[in-house]
Amino acid sequence: MAGLTGLLLVVDVQNDFCRGGALAIPSGDEVVPVANRIADKFSHVALTQDWHPSGHLSFASSHTGKKPFDSLELPYGRQTLWPDHCVQGSRGADFHKDLRTTSAEFILRKGYDKNIDSYSAFFENDRRTPTGLAGYLRERSIKTVHICGLATDYCVFYSAMDAMRLGFAAHVVEDACRGINLADSVELAMREMALAGVVFTDSEKLLAGVGA
Fold first, then answer.
1. Active-site annotation holds for 50
2. Known catalytic residue: 148?
3. Active site includes 86?
4. Mean pLDDT along residues 171-182
5. Which residue of the set 12, 84, 153, 202 is catalytic?
6. pTM for the model
7. Contacting residues for 36 by C-beta, under 8 A, at least 6 apart
């Protein structure tokens, strides 16, 4: 059934971002069946996985007197502080049990440097240190990235914006994404992506072979 051009990038569909997780995103589990359905249409599928060491600098628990969702100025910029999540080797860092991973040709782990967070699948949060994904896409002659997963306003957003910045076409699959939505951050992210030229699509269009 595969055949859509470009790559489907499934972002951080992990236990800690789903129901009962340390940083559960509202309705995060709902992206799983949608991602599974559309993955069958793509010749190329990649997954990202948050992969933090214990005591990561982005964890509120690493800063005395700070609590989750506070923010702090760090050497690479302003950082939202999170509950401890997606710690390497933990159940929370595992992919959701119902997410089909067998079709993935590439799994990118990010955020494994203790001293810097990594929202984007392309760069760490200093906006300069690459993950290697762009090189992978270029070597495979992949020019379009369809992005889905968690969360719309953070890792999906930064991945889409960086894809555009690097010269790839970025398509966000809206019904296969869910957001954290701190201070209307989903609406702001959607607006900024639209201004940058990101294309919005949905699973029905992709399953019908439209908008690839």
1. no
2. no
3. no
4. 96
5. 12
6. 0.95
7. 98, 99, 100
Catalytic residue among 16, 110, 177, 202: 110
Question: Mind listing the pLDDT tens digit for each residue in 27-76?
Answer: 999 999 999 999 999 999 999 999 999 999 999 999 999 999 999 999 99
The one catalytic residue in 18, 148, 155, 177 is: 155
Place of tokens 């859509």: 4
Which domains does the chain possess? Answer: 4-207 (3.40.50.850)
| pLDDT tens for each residue of 127-145 | 999 999 999 999 999 999 9
The amino acid at 56? H
